[in-house]
Each structure stands twice: as C-alpha cells, then as structure tokens.
Amino acid sequence: METSCKSKKELLLCTIGKIVREKRKELNKGILLLSYEYDIPNTSLAKLEKGERDVQITTLWKLAEALGMNFSQFVDELEKRLPKNFKLTDD
C-alpha cells in the first residue's frame, strides 16, 4: 500500500482498504465495475483500497453489501486483522 500506515488512523484505513480489495478480487470484479454497480465513485474506491481515504459509514455499509457481507461481518473481519485491543484513542 502506498500509505505508510504509521498512525492508528492510517492503520485502520489501510486495513479497511485491504479487506475491500481482497473481497473485490474474490468476486473477480474490477474497481470500475464495482463502483458502477453500487454507485460509488471509482476514484473514491481506488483511494479507499489504498488506505488514502476515510470512508463514510454509509459507503462502508454499501461496500460490505456489495462484497457479499453484512456490515457486522465486515467489522468482525476488520477487528480480526487489527492488533489485539486496538483503539483509535489513547487512554
């Protein structure tokens, strides 16, 4: 990924992007086709996959469905891939 993923936010965005890219490829769909089918701008989708774009919850929900998952499955997958006890905030 092009983003360095050094901060917690960058790590989160990179992980989301990796999940989206992997699931999209499992469906054998290109960015253009997926973006067209689900009305998501292809440039936004490409940046999201690279971890360069923060995504709105509505877009993430739509993407999860487009990738054959419900939103909670997507979040479960995300939590599995992040470090144990991952938090965006510092205590």
Query: Which CATH first-tier class would you pick?
Result: Mainly Alpha
CATH homology group = lambda repressor-like DNA-binding domains
CATH architecture grouping: Orthogonal Bundle
Helix amount, in percent? 55-70%
| Structural domain count | 1
The CATH topology: 434 Repressor (Amino-terminal Domain)
Shape: globular
Q: From the structure provided, what is the oligomeric state, counting identical versus distinct chains?
A: single chain
User: Mean pLDDT, rounded to whole units?
Assistant: 92
Characteristic key phrases:
91 residues; 60% helix; 434 Repressor (Amino-terminal Domain); single chain; mainly alpha
Topology overview:
Elements lengths: L7 H19 L4 H7 L4 H8 L7 H10 L4 H11 L10
Helix pairs in contact: 1-5
Descriptive account of the structure:
- By secondary structure, the chain is mainly alpha-helical.
- 60% of the residues lie in helices and 0% in strands.
- It has one domain: Orthogonal Bundle (434 Repressor (Amino-terminal Domain)).
- It has five helices and no strands.
- The longest helix has 19 residues, at 8-26.
Provide a short characterization of the protein structure:
The protein has 91 residues and is mostly helical. Helix content is 60%, strand content 0%.
